[in-house]
Task: inverse folding
């Protein structure tokens, strides 16, 4: 099952994590601080294909493989696809209703499937509910949120892959 490494603001050896990914994996470069996001993207460029989160200008500037949009910007996918037809365009989603607007995307990251420390207090969808949602999606769906090597086996075949943070960093 393909893997996606999602970065966040924590100090971690993201380059080492990216190098450990199996062939065909992708890294989504996220972060609120634009300077830190740029530095991280430059560090990771060439290690694995990069999707830049919520920053199309940076994605174009560094020659990223694509763009990752937050759920609230999912409707922009068709615009960015028209401007950059070679890009992979993804988005986050947190419900079945959100996924119904995903037609112009290449994939969606459905979260949180399990309880996760990166979004404390967020109610997990549960593997059963998440599988139901993924099974009705118009595009491939990746499970995100609290996914570990131990609980990944609980994910249904309706998922196209797994996206993770903590379980993929050394």
Result:
């Amino acid at each position: 099952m393909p893997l996606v490494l999602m970065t966040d603001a924590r100090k971690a050896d993201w380059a080492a994590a990216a190098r450990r990914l199996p062939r065909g994996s992708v890294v989504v470069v996220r972060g609120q601080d634009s300077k830190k996001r740029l530095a991280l993207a430059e560090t990771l460029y060439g290690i694995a294909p990069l999707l830049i989160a919520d920053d199309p200008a940076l994605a174009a500037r560094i020659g990223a493989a694509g763009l990752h949009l937050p759920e609230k910007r999912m409707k922009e996918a068709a615009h960015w696809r028209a401007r950059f037809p070679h890009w992979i365009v993804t988005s986050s989603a947190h419900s079945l209703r959100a996924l119904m607007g995903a037609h112009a995307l290449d994939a969606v990251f459905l979260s949180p499937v399990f309880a996760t420390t990166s979004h404390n207090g967020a109610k997990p969808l549960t593997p059963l509910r998440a599988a139901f949602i993924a099974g009705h999606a118009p595009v491939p769906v990746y499970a995100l949120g609290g996914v570990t090597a131990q609980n990944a086996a609980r994910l249904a075949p309706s998922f196209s892959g797994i996206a993770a943070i903590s379980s993929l960093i050394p």
